Each structure stands twice: as structure tokens, then as C-alpha cells.
Amino acid sequence: xxxxxxxxxxxxxxxxxxxxxxxxxxxxxxxxxxxxxxxxxxxxxxxxxxxxxxxxxxxxxxxxxxxxxxxxxxxxxxxxxxxxxxxxxxxxxxxxxxxxxxxxxxxxxxxxxxxxxxxxxxxxxxxxxxxxxxxxxxxxxxxxxxxxxxxxxxxxxxxxxxxxxxxxxxxxxxxxxxxxxxxxxxxxxxxxxxxxxxxxxxxxxxxxxxxxxxxxxxxxxxxxxxxxxxxxxxxxxxxxxxxxxxxxxxxxxxxxxxxxxxxxxxxxxxxxxxxxxxxxxxxxxxxxxxxxxxxxxxxxxxxxxxxxxxxxxxxxxxxxxxxxxxxxxxxxxxxxxxxxxxxxxxxxxxxxxxxxxxxxxxxxxxxxxxxxxxxxxxxxxxxxxxxxxxxxxxxxxxxxxxxxxxxxxx
Length: 410
Ligand SMILES: *Cc1c(COP(=O)(O)O)cnc(C)c1O
Prior knowledge:
Its cofactor is pyridoxal 5'-phosphate. By secondary structure, this protein is of the alpha/beta class. The protein has 2 domains: 19-252, Type I PLP-dependent aspartate aminotransferase-like (Major domain) (Aspartate Aminotransferase, domain 2), CATH 3.40.640; 255-405, Alpha-Beta Complex (Aspartate Aminotransferase, domain 1), CATH 3.90.1150.
């Protein structure tokens, strides 16, 4: 027995397998020499060659390709119903490389309030279209337009974009469509199935899911795109490390469980907020009151709303700040999509770089609080939000009145 190489069963599940099966098995071969069920971390930067230009296996140098990165890319491709996936050092590096792949002078149309960082990068050659019920990009198309960038749900107002509708318009003009799917994860939404050409993720968020890796990925079907973006991945070298690839792959294997739980929690928190007299409005695509609920029902798995929501608190920016300092389970921090619940105030944190007028035009008011629900227990999260609202809105009013009466100062 020991003299024979270990027979490894075929480990690439066919597309007939469902999400959880693919998450666990796609890109997860048993180690061919030891039979290890979990892949080893391949830290070697270089790989031996038996003759000039004849490497022992398929690897030569770790920037060009690495077993852990490749396995992770295979897993993401399977989960996004894509032929190819390429991993990068961050979500931002992924965006930069896609924009870099366009001809110089290309024009990009961004639909909705895109991620702050994406905004910063594109400012010179971009047009912005707000995500309304029916997005019409036609008036923004120029002969130089090469790309439409969609974020759905948008950040931080959770507006939805009908990917199919935008892709149909763009494709009539030979324009490519990219969807940033970070907020929902591949478990809830698969943009390529709705006509997108490329789907991107900040792996930092739901795919890794444990707030301990910064990484990005792009998935697509075109072989020509694989050639072009693969060239830039290697040439620019903004690649994830073997260790990060391995960690992110481990996180990916439980994504469906985490995302389901985060959705359950966000639904409970959104309903509690909606029922509170201290809240002006709640943005959550899982609620019947969401203006784009019909899109969620078409585009999301079982109409799920995901783990992200935002809401406007009564009492302005001060109340928003107080709220974030008063929760005990939700941590005041940027980022999202981890096992732990986080909150932040976009107007002075993630979206502070966008001019106020522009921010408010897309609904990012000073009193907006963004919430990332983790996988704690729904009842505990709900109770935490409700007690923080009482303290941030009601208790502070009482304190203020006391201060005015007591000191005579306004
Ligand atoms: C975080 C984030 C990014 C950027 O990803 P990094 O991994 O932080 O570089 C891009 N898009 C969205 C929607 C994000 O939330």
C-alpha cells in the first residue's frame, strides 16, 4: 500500500452540487503525497526545476502562481458560477487592476453610492448614476465608455440595482459590466447569472468572514479576460500571500452558514429599528418596506437581505455618535462581514472623503448609522440596539434639558 501514491478521489464537484457542498469541496484536493484532508500552506516562493524550463510540477515562482491561491480561486469560481477567478492583495487592488486593464482615457459609469475607495480611485474619468427604481445609463454613455461599475446593495444606503436591466443597456453598446458583490457574498447573489461580465469581492468581508485577512478577488467567464487580468496580476504583483489565501479559503468553507445567520440577525435588528420611535428610516433590502424589494426577490437567494443595514437616528449626528458609543455588543469600527457585529457613522468614517452635498444627494446623511450584523444571537443584538437607542436619543434629551435648566446655558 505505502509504495503506491495515494489515490485521490476527484475533488472538483460538478456544477450540479449545491452551494454548501461546493463551498466545502471546490478547490480542496487531498494532498497527493500525504493524503492530508486540509491543504498544507505552501510557503515556498520558488519551485525546483529538473531541467531548464522544466519545473517539477506546475509551479515556478509564487508571484505567478501558488497552490493556496489557486485553490482559493477555484473555490470562488465555483461559488460565483464563473469559469475563472483571480485573487488580489485587497479588494482595492482588484478594482485598480480592472481599471488599469482598460485603455488609457476610458470612461467609467458608476451606478449608485459606490464604496468610498472605489470613488477615490475613479474620480477623474467617472460618471455617477444614482440607483433608482429603473436605472438609465444611456445619457451617460460616451464613445469612450468602456465599463459600468455597479454596487448592489450600495454602500451604505443599501439601494439595489437591477443587474440584468443595466447589463442589457451596456451590452448594446459593447460596454462591460462589473458588479461589486461584497455586501451580499456569493451565497446570496451571483451577478454573472444576471448578465454581469465580472464580479468582484473584497474578500476581507464575508468571504473570509473573520476580520483577519485583507484580500480581493474577481471572477468571470471570458478566457481573454483571464489572459489580460492574469497578466496584470503577475506583472503588478498585487497578490495575496499563501497564508492569507489559505485563511480566506478556510473562511469561505463556512460562508453559507455565516451569511444565513447574519441575515437572520439583520432581519431581526431591522424590524426592531423599524418599530422604534427613535428611528427616522431603515435601509434593509430584506424588509417589505425597502423601495427595491422586488429586485431583492428576483436577484437574491430566497429574497434574503444579507447582514448589512443602515438607519437614520433621531437627534442628528450627535445622536448617531452617541449610539455608536453606547452599544455593548456592536463594536464601533469600519469594515463589515465578519463574525462580530460592527457599527459606524459613514458621514465621518468610511464616506468622509465625499463632499457633503454629494453624500446627502445619495442619502448619506450625518445621522446615518451603518450596521454589520455578525453571527451572535439575534435576541442579544436586538436588545443591544434598543438599549443604545434609548440612551442615545431619550436619555440624552433628558440630560440636555437638565443641563439647560441647571446652568442657564442654551
Ligand atoms: C471593503 C470594500 C472594498 C475594498 O476592499 P479592501 O479589501 O478593503 O481593499 C470594496 N468594495 C466594498 C463594497 C467594500 O466593502
